[in-house]
Task: structure prediction
Amino acid sequence: MVHHSRGRLAAGAVLLTAALALTACSASEPGDSTDSAGSLTVWVDADRAAVLKDAAAEFTKESGVEVKLVQKDFADIQEQFIAQVPTGKGPDITIGAHDWLGNFVTNGVVAPVELGDKAGDFQEVAVTAMSFDGVTYGVPYSIENIAMLRNTALAPTAPTSYDDMIAMGKSAGTEFPFIVQVGPESDPYHLYPFQTSFGAPVFGTNADGSYNADELTIGDAGGDQFATWLAQQGAAGNLNISLTGDLAKEKFNAGASPFFLTGPWNVADAQAAGIDVAVDPIPAPGPNAAQPFVGVQGFFVSAKSTNTLAASEFLTNYIATESVQTALYEVGKRAPALTASFEAASADPIIAGFGEVGATAVPMPNIPEMGSVWQFWGVTEAAIIGGQADPVGLWQKMAADVQGAI
Amino acid sequence: MSTVTSTGTRRPFHVGRWFRATGWRHVIGITMSIFAIFPLLYVLSASLNPSGTLISANALFSVFDFGSYTRLFDLPQQPYAAWYGNTLVIGITTSICTVFLGAMAAYSFSRMRFTGRRVGLLALLLVQMFPQLLAVVAIFLLLNGISDIFPAIGLDTQIGLIMVYLGGALGVNTYLMYGFFNTVPTSIDEAAKIDGAGHARIFFTIILRLVAPILAVVGLLSFIGTTNEFVIASIVLIEPEKQTLAVGLYQFVSDEFSKNYSIFAAGAVLAALPVMALFLYLQKYIVSGLTAGSVK
Amino acid sequence: MSITKPRAPRTTPVPHPTSTSLRVLVVKIAALAIVDAISLYALFIVGAQRDWIVFAAIVVVTVIVNVVYFSRRFLPAKYLVPGVIFLVVFQVFIIGYTAYIAFTNYGTGHNSTKEDAVAALIGSSQERVEDSPAYGLTVVESLGTYSFLVTDPDGDVSIGNADNPLSPVDNATIEGGVAVGIPGYNTLTFSQIVAAQETIAGLTVQISDDQNDGALRTPDGSSAFVYRSNLVYDETAATMTNSTTGVVYSDTGVGAFTASNGEELLPGWKIEIGFDNFARAFGDESIRGPLFSVALWTFAFAFLSVATTFLLGLFLAVVFNDRRMRGRKVYRVMMILPYAFPAFLSALVWAGMLNRDFGFVNQVLFGGADIPWLTNEWLAKVSIILVNLWLGFPYMFLVCTGALQSIPEELQEAATMDGAKPWAVFRFIKMPLLLVSIAPLLISSFAFNFNNFNLIYMLTNGGPRDVSAGVNVGATDILISMVYKVAFVGAGRDYGLASAFSIIIFVLVGVIAALSFRATKSLEELN
Result:
């Protein structure tokens, strides 16, 4: 008796498991039955998936190679690529930012790409950014940097200097003379042009334009001047650590300031909010030019890809052509890395404006040592802006901490 | 319950008495509702303002525009409707299986005495306490291995994800049920046994009905936990059409440069509806006093 | 418990089971047969892959399942096995994996096998010979051997393959200035190239008899470049030699090719390193310095989180558990709303509301004050507890509401009739009963908050930080977020170290939990 009812329970449990497993067996078979010339798996983020879809379909038509776009969260790609490539389950190609490259190379997950004679067709900064130890690992696709957005209704002309900009901002009578996102842990990326204007880049550079991790220049005399300046601006209320990225954007879009130091990603929303924007060079508070960081986005090939030829074909002989780069620009509105396409895109004054600033810009370091810089950089800036202690002392302490971490 | 309240209203109404009996409860209820809802008004407000940000300063509901809701179903790369369906399927399957597996375990812990019972109970608690820093890496490797044998239950399958969630079926929930099972008198089991019922019959036809409130609570907890989980889901589910709401929603705001708070907020508001509907539905099981009635 | 024991119930007559017994037996056998068939299928595949550990695991599980359900004994196991299988596969595995990683150097630069490291090093050391020309390439095949038919920029055509260096030819078919075919060979189409791409991508053709001149390789099947590798791998000696500098890097057992001066070539590979990670975990200065204050805050945070959410949740559950109250349903739904929205979304909203200069709390509730909710060391701690209360009380509310149902109404009625005050009824009758089922949940909630990385990470990221301290640890960092920063932020990710910390924290929390578990006597109570 007991046995029988026990049996029913057993049956139920077994059935449950079996049902799961059965659906498993019937659903699909391992290994795909592609009769085309092979297939490529490409990781892209949601934005770029839309952009690449047509380009991929076109490539499949031309070459017979099927391109499978897998949508990933951009913020997760770096870590997942490093984790999954060694298992052999990673993609053949992934989209990525150039400052991930050092990490990729150190982990041995990317294969070099040969741009061949096409290297010269790209903007120089893009190829430099995609190179590590003299070897090129990525095919650049777009270039991004920040510049000064101006609300032309509040400030009809471009400022001639930083002080001029503040004066114009004050006379405009808006809530802020100018806006830059800072946040409770500051934002060294957005403040970097001001830092370089005082002559304090993070690292020294080698002859070929790559960064030299052995030469930490952030603590040089220029750095102290920058720290002092930060403290002054914080005290004057021009920099505010409560102004996070979202708030900054919202304030500018609400007309709370004539100037907004930001990137092209915020332009569309500002225009949608009815603001007529112009793009100006970044006024330098220090003696040197204000050079922002350039971020280059592009495609990397997995070191364990078994489709290397198809991947190279797709990247160098397809993505790197003018027609495709122009088409990608037209869908995604990101400044192309290919010079010819960029020039075509420069008909748009916004693109031209950012491009002009970008021409003087420097690539964000892609060496792994940069990780040690970030963790001290922002909080120190925030402490200085917040007026917590002697700015020069804090800055030097930071330089020492970074050196120690490297 | 209706008899109590209706007799109450027939009598002359005394504010003081009313307040002492239930009125103060309403004061607390309203205060707490404000505390609970207020932050969410920002989400609702953002969802109605297609060009705004999440923390649209302090001007709530300055715009009323359902554009974000319609756009939500109109994004080819972000198949929101599919996510919604997936979330319901995964959430309901997981919560049903969790309740079933957990109830079975709680039954054996509550009604049977066996060696390793106490150790087992303690182990269940301890296993849940392990810091999950590496969980993502481990689960990827595990499902990767399963994919090699049964691709249909491995990576990028919803069954694979459900199985991972069921790994947590025994645990805190089991304790909750175990405690509740213990309050059901064993005399009920004994009486049924005398009537000739086996253990499985007692479990399925008698005990499970008596513990319905806690089954409903566990089911709800499991459903909410599953629908809000996005770390593991984003590793396991790769194709956009297979992903869940939490994964998809997270994508709307995780990219530093293309955050879309309005659509994100609209998606989150819609995503909260099933949870509320489920709770409304389950409330009658949770608080109907089924236990008291049947045990009497 | 004796007080809760009501009268024996009048159960409805149970239908006699024999009518269904045969069918049940058949279904049971069929179901087990399916399980066994699936296992067998898995065994074939795993056996073919020669993965004997997995093989053994499948055998053991299958045998256990069959024994448990076919035998008349093992009654508890029949109820436990399904859940335990999932638990072991998906939860215990994570613990085991973490424990294993704790004894390896897995992390940035050491994330794969030695073979992968060699391949990656050789791959990235291929340098294109400076100022060398790009060759137009046609891949041709003869008798199963692939050859490169190349056209140099001057239009001269040569052919070569893996064994024969380039030699000039003059009978090639030229199209558009590039040789596209040659008698005696088949020209490969692009799809044929892709089909054989692993072979072709690995093909190197020496451009002359002298190896130092470099070799032709193709990245895409349509052009070829001259490469020279500056790293040479000697398989027998297991050494890497830099052919430019002559430095020899050898495998010295540290998981990377290492020169005599200690310089390492990265990527290296994953090796087992014994207790090194644990030694580092205890010896790491960036951990040891702030350890005491962080640990103290972690305990305070976890305790206060549990206490506040539980008390509020319980209070509300009791308040809304009165049958006379109208609108309870609506209130209850309101109470679980914070739980129905994703936590990361709520954290974003709260961070905005608590913003010092622009947030709702300061601007509206405090009339324009600038209270540094998230940027002052102590206020940030208060804010974290507050936000966690908001996030966590619905859970406790739900759980308490459920648990309250197990307390018969008669109890309260009887006690009230005996003249007990409501508070006394609650304190001495309801509360002890509630705690029986809730106490384990409180312990587990404590453990959860002890490791509540997400909340800290999303709301304050551990900040505010004292920059003069020189360590990357802030005022609201708890142990797990400190571990995250030490192991993952900065130059690279150190999974080995993170795992060692996980184990240490686990032991710590586990001991506390086991002790409090004994203290609550929730197990003894019911034996």
About this structure: The longest helix of chain A spans residues 2-27.
